[in-house]
TrEMBL record:
<keyword id="KW-0521">NADP</keyword>
<protein>
    <recommendedName>
        <fullName>Pyrroline-5-carboxylate reductase</fullName>
        <ecNumber>1.5.1.2</ecNumber>
    </recommendedName>
</protein>
<dbReference type="InterPro" id="IPR028939">
    <property type="entry name" value="P5C_Rdtase_cat_N"/>
</dbReference>
<dbReference type="Pfam" id="PF14748">
    <property type="entry name" value="P5CR_dimer"/>
</dbReference>
<comment type="pathway">
    <text>Amino-acid biosynthesis; L-proline biosynthesis; L-proline from L-glutamate 5-semialdehyde: step 1/1.</text>
</comment>
<keyword id="KW-0560">Oxidoreductase</keyword>
<dbReference type="Pfam" id="PF03807">
    <property type="entry name" value="F420_oxidored"/>
</dbReference>
<keyword id="KW-0963">Cytoplasm</keyword>
<feature type="domain" description="Pyrroline-5-carboxylate reductase dimerisation">
    <location>
        <begin position="171"/>
        <end position="274"/>
    </location>
</feature>
<dbReference type="InterPro" id="IPR029036">
    <property type="entry name" value="P5CR_dimer"/>
</dbReference>
<feature type="domain" description="Pyrroline-5-carboxylate reductase catalytic N-terminal">
    <location>
        <begin position="9"/>
        <end position="100"/>
    </location>
</feature>
<keyword id="KW-0028">Amino-acid biosynthesis</keyword>
<dbReference type="GO" id="GO:0004735">
    <property type="term" value="F:pyrroline-5-carboxylate reductase activity"/>
</dbReference>
<dbReference type="InterPro" id="IPR008927">
    <property type="entry name" value="6-PGluconate_DH-like_C_sf"/>
</dbReference>
<comment type="similarity">
    <text>Belongs to the pyrroline-5-carboxylate reductase family.</text>
</comment>
<keyword id="KW-0641">Proline biosynthesis</keyword>
<comment type="function">
    <text>Catalyzes the reduction of 1-pyrroline-5-carboxylate (PCA) to L-proline.</text>
</comment>
Length: 276
């Protein structure tokens, strides 16, 4: 991977943009063409390795991507993707980060001969901490993905954080619910802690500062420590102390677990619906 690949990025919004920054910083892509109606993001303007195209018919002449990264919203994938059929060839792998969209849907959108063995597709689910190189991505490939294409996709995803590969594509729906959407749950917890702190008498600004610092610090502690989360929790919890009083509420039968079960189930269902 020392030379970097030729990459076509379709959709350069929040996730595509974050990943592009990571690839360029890591040198995983040596040439990137970006198709994005809003134009190139500020962070890559002037970078000689990056150029813009208005669509599949506007790619630089002779540009043959090793990988086409699909980072548009799932809702527009069906209209956007057929335009990229001419790029299907044995040496090119299509790497999707779209929620819900299945490998089967990409196979049919990318051509009538979609079952052809040369149509290499990797479906993946990253998350927004990718913007600071701390993403968590889960990926699954179809049978056509060669070992070198898998290595390439792994390097691209690893440039923005950790990567796990699975064999069973059905896992991508609960994966999306846990790690894809998960950062939003954590940010909501910060908001909820700050509001509760305010209700308990703290000035709003101080309550938010405490909530942010606590979640960020606890996250970093967990990141740096191999200690299981339950043990980190127990280390905060003095017998019959303040934490115990709060955890008696949060760990009650109607506490956080049933709420989280319902939230993850709802997101999983939505991911399954987006496939249709
Ligand atoms: N935001 C998140 O936390 C995560 C998002 N994803 C997936 O990433 C994909 C992108 O999501 P975001 O970056 O959040 O959305 P976004 O709206 O920020 O980015 C999508 C981009 O696609 C562009 N676009 C629209 N039509 C296009 C076309 N015809 N050709 C090229 N680009 C086009 C839009 O202008 C926009 O910049 C989605 O499929 C989503 O499911 C995956 C994991 C996490
Ligand atoms: O909310 C969504 O649909 C996307 C996928 C995971 C995170 N954001």
């Amino acid at each position: 991977m020392s030379e970097g690949c030729a990459l076509l990025l379709v959709g350069c919004g929040k996730m595509g943009g974050a990943m592009l920054d990571g690839w360029l910083a890591a040198g995983t892509a040596s040439r990137v063409v970006v198709v994005e109606p809003s134009g190139l993001p500020e962070s890559v303007r002037g970078n000689p390795a990056v150029s813009a195209a208005t669509g599949p018919a506007d790619l630089p002449s002779g540009f043959v991507p090793d990988v086409v990264v699909l980072a548009v919203k799932p809702q527009v994938m069906d209209t956007v993707l057929p335009g990229y059929r001419p790029l299907v060839r044995p040496g090119t792998v299509f790497l999707s980060i779209a929620a819900g969209k299945t490998i089967g849907s990409f196979e049919s959108l990318l051509g009538a001969d979609a079952a052809a063995p040369e149509l290499s597709i990797v479906r993946s689910m990253p998350n927004t901490p990718a913007a600071i190189g701390r993403g968590m991505t889960v990926a699954v490939g179809n049978a056509a993905v060669t070992p070198s294409q898998r290595t390439l996709c792994d390097a691209l995803l690893r440039a923005v954080g950790d990567v796990a590969w699975v064999e069973d594509e059905l896992l991508l729906d609960p994966v999306t619910a846990v790690s894809g959407s998960g950062p939003a749950y954590v940010f909501l917890m910060v908001e909820a802690m700050a509001k509760a702190g305010e209700a308990a008498g703290l000035p709003a600004e101080l309550a938010m500062r405490l909530a942010r610092a606590t979640v960020a610090g606890a996250g970093e502690l967990m990141h740096q420590s191999p200690t299981p989360a339950a043990d980190l929790r127990k280390a905060v919890t003095s017998p019959n102390g303040t934490t115990q009083a709060a955890l008696d509420v949060l760990m009650a039968g109607d506490g956080l677990q049933p709420l989280m079960d319902r939230a993850i189930a709802a997101a999983t269902r939505r991911s399954q619906e987006l496939a249709r």
